[in-house]
Amino acid sequence: MYSPANDNQDYRASRGERYVDHSFMPPCQVACPLRMDVREYVDLVAQGKIMEALQVIRNGNPFPSICAYVCTHPCEDTCRRSQVDKPVAIRALKRFAVEFGGDRMIQAEAETTRQEKVAIVGSGPAGMACAYYLRKLGYPATIFEAHSELGGMLRAGIPQYRLPRDVLDVEVKRLTQMGVEIRTDTRVVSTDLLFDLGYRAIFITIGAHQSLRMGIEGEESPGVIDGATFLREVNLGLKPSLGKRVAVVGGGNVAIDAARTAGRLGTKKVSIIYRRTRAEMPADPTEVEFALGEGIKIRYLVTPTGIKRKDGLLSVTCVKMELGEPDESGRRRPEPIKDSDFTEEVDTLIMAIGQAPQTPADFRVRTGKGSTIQVDPVTLITNRPGVFAGGDAVTGPATVTEALAAGKLAASRIDDYLQHRYPLADREEKKSLDSELLPETIEMIRKIGRVEPSVLSTRQRVKSFEPVELVYDWETAVNEARRCLRCGMGAEILFQDKCATCLTCLRVCPYHVPYLDESGTIQIPVEQCQACGICVAECPAKAIVLRKPYDRRSINEELDHILKSAAESKSKPFIVGFCCQYGLFGTGTLAGMWREARAGAWIVPVLCVAKVEADHILRAFEMGAGGVFIAGCGEQCARENTDTWVHQRVAKVRKTLAQLGIEPERLQAFSPDTSQEDPARELDKFAELIGGLYLASVITQEVKS
Amino acid sequence: MIVAEQKPLEELIRTIAPYHRVLILGCGTCMTVCDAGGEREVSFLRHALQLAEAKGSNGAHTFTEYTVKRQCDYEFLDPLADRISDVDAVLSLGCGIGVQTIAERFPDIPVLPGVNTSFMGASKEWGVWDERCAACGDCRLEETGGICPITRCTKGILNGPCAGTKNGKCEANQDMDCAWVLIYRRLERLGQLEKMRRYYPPRNFLAVPRPKRITSKASIDTGEDDG
User: Fold this and answer.
1) Which positions in chain B touch A660 (Cβ < 8 Å)?
2) Where in chain A is the domain with CATH 1.10.1060?
3) How far apart are CA A74 and CA A72, in angstroms?
């Protein structure tokens, strides 16, 4: 099991220091409402450690499989890789980890250790997350849901082609397994009644299902339907008849979902009418792309002003708009252009201009702007003791991830309340990293294009409600994950007293990151460091470490382990290979290679082969290795000059070997190339060579004796 | 800065042969900067010696390692007392000054030099060092455009160049710049070419008493006799 706590002990143990994670919080994690450790799980995917990646994901997210499909990935929007080329495809990688890591198989368990019953009103993402964490905390939890099935907007709002229902069903089943009491078809009308039933705390998470109206003439006509109702009907199994031409009013995700759903129901002509331009559209750009690909027309800067119904058709009067001054949302306010009216005929008009919560009056909670429930932002408590609220009901329509975060927070706040604890402020978080990469750093970072997961063809898409996006294959996922710049975990001079200011780090850094400040001290700005580890290996004072060591185990520990295993195994001689833990190792190719090559080859996975120190190599020989090889990741390497550093150290160690009468060719460096016909051949030859040298030495000894 | 290089491994193996427990002692200042005896090199040497041990299978030696900030001052050596009591010899990767300071501070234990202290110099680039100063004790760099003929001229002549200069290189080594050509060019740049015309009488190095001592304290009479 991956355990960072064991890492890097060789440096720190020598100084009697414990492992400390000095890394900064990367922008992706800062952007995530759930504060997911994105950098960590992306790195684990890059190593091919999918189960561990899933473990990290599950630590922060109760329903990762849901997020894997529908998250709006604010992490990708802030990803610093976009300053180099394109952001890392984080959501797609999560989807890969969830599917390949076997998230479905994971059993959730919970034990009831508390007496206080908690009622959750509404079963959307916030309600489900709250129930999940309350069970984890040991509380009996009951979910009340007005509809016949759990999920809230996940079931009633999001179309199946974006979130397959079996994914949702697995999560619901898991909640049941954890012992969450589920009451469907139960509409809660009064919170007092719940208190009377013995519930000690209530979490209101009723969402925002009430569609807003434009207030134009004819909005009540038959044939005009609101987006949320339309999606709910379709998602709950109805097939509303829409006619041949459908227009959707709005520019949010609901508008796009409604339009794409209408298309899938067989409507020939679907168009979206939006009063601003594409730049201001709140919908996820990828979804907009998909909609356009599916033949949906979007008309920008148009808004309807009146609807008339004649002979079963809707005659919609629209007016063209232009953008004026920015409004309070920061977007430019659309203003009608005089005398630009025109009329369009459609069969159905879907109004998707926004939704608001509809809170029963008997809840007696204070509501504010847009009918949202008002809560204390820290405690999530409403104006009534014991009544908490979260999700869309508090924020207005927002994302699934924000709702999950609200549910997670609510569980701990309810816990504080029930245990009469002062609500603990969040643990002091790590410093976050937010500055941009410098142009000179960007210049040195190898450009590697983002690979999008494949999608169903448009023709297949519009016919069915099958999920549009497919999952990565193993190799693509590993290579995509390798694009991560590992923000915030770079090198630091941990032992300032040891630093001799020799300037080695400044001179060897491929990214020109370290600099000498005015006081003559070396600074390694964490914002720029790419965590390649070259300065760590080259520092003659051993004063530099990575802020968060990403070798899976410290190299010395790994060597100890090999020593033990090699002593037990019968194969002689044995070979030690220091290999890049990503690349061929991540894809599993390397594992295949050395298994084929010869038994008795032991692999030490390392963050980067340029980080393998000369004394590590010597140590492998000292342990009795007949041969040592270093295998980088070849053309997939994030840097251009990794081999140079490997050859430096190989040359140094070979010189020493020669002085000791050991054949220098027992140490070799490979740069395996996936494009080669047989990447294992070189390694095979090496194993043969070492085997030959071994035989020769055995014979010589026998002759002597 | 003082520049040194590690002795050949064969020599070190011979040096430590009579002793069982050896402390490999690094120095955190000049020897770290010139890659000869910092913590990294101490560790490398230890593994190299252990490998030699494993290969020779005489199993007679055990090695420990430690690096102090500077070997040439007593105060830095104080924490060594315990470690030294556990070993039979100290293999110092400090310069000659470090080795001697340790020998003075710990008179009961053999101190073995691990590096050849070579010169005082500067780094040309990563991993390359050039000699720059001979510590002659009588600096004349203002006359020679900031380039030292004593160190950088193979012959160390004070009135150069000699007849052996060719295309700006030295007759002794085709890859080496002629110091006096460098001096000429620099003086030309400074507009001080007249300094080339001056005659510098030979210096009497015999008149410089060794070992030297410098005191920065006012009126000192320690009464000590160093012999």
Assistant:
1) 9, 48, 51-52, 55
2) 25-106+436-481
3) 6
Q: State residue A7's pLDDT score.
A: 33
Q: What is the pLDDT of residues B135-176, one digit of tens each?
A: 988 888 999 999 999 999 999 999 989 999 999 999 999 999
Q: What are phi and psi of A306, to 5 degrees?
A: -170, 150
**Is B2-119 in CATH node 3.30.420.240?**
no
Query: What would the CATH number be for the domain defined by A210-355?
Result: 3.50.50.60
Q: What is the pLDDT of residues A354-387, one digit of tens each?
A: 999 999 988 999 999 889 999 998 889 999 999 9
State whether residue A520 sits within 8 Å of chain B by CB.
no
Of the candidates A282, A221, A218, A220, the one whose C-alpha atom is nearest the C-alpha of residue A256 is A282
Q: How distant, in Å, are the alpha carbons of A226, A249, A331, A343 from that of A318? A: 18, 11, 21, 6
C-alpha angle A234-A207-A60 in degrees, rounded to nearest 5? 100
A385 touches chain B (CB under 8 A): no
**Contact (Cβ atoms closer than 8 angstroms) between residue B51 and residue A621:** yes
Write out pLDDT tens, residues A657-683: 999 999 999 999 887 665 555 666 777
CB within 8 Å: A660 and B35: no
Model confidence, pTM: 0.86
Domain A1-23+490-550 matching CATH 3.30.70.20: the answer reads yes
Note whether A540 contacts B39, CB cutoff 8 Å: yes
Question: Which CATH code is given to the segment(s) A117-208+357-418?
Answer: 3.50.50.60
Q: Closest partner residue to A660 among B32, B52, B69, by Cβ?
A: B52
Residue ranges, comma separated, of all CATH 3.50.50.60 domains in chain A are: 117-208+357-418, 210-355
Please report the pLDDT score of residue A14 as a whole number.
Answer: 44
pLDDT band at A703 (very low <50, low <70, confident <90, very high): confident
Helix A614-622 × helix B39-56 angle, to 10°? 20
Closest Cβ opposite residue A660 in set B51, B67, B125: B51
Q: Which of residues 66-125 of B touch A (CB under 8 A)?
A: 67, 69, 123, 125
Partner residue facing A541 (CB), from B32, B50, B125 = B32
ipTM of the complex: 0.89
Q: Which residue does chain B place closest to A537, by CA atoms?
A: B40
Chain B residues whose beta carbon lies within 8 Å of the beta carbon of residue A500: 28-29, 32-33, 38
Residues B80-113 pLDDT 10s? 999 999 999 999 999 999 999 999 999 999 999 9
- Contact with chain B for residue A210, Cβ under 8 A: no
pLDDT of A161 strictly over 80 = yes
CATH 2.40.128 fits A25-106+436-481, yes or no: no
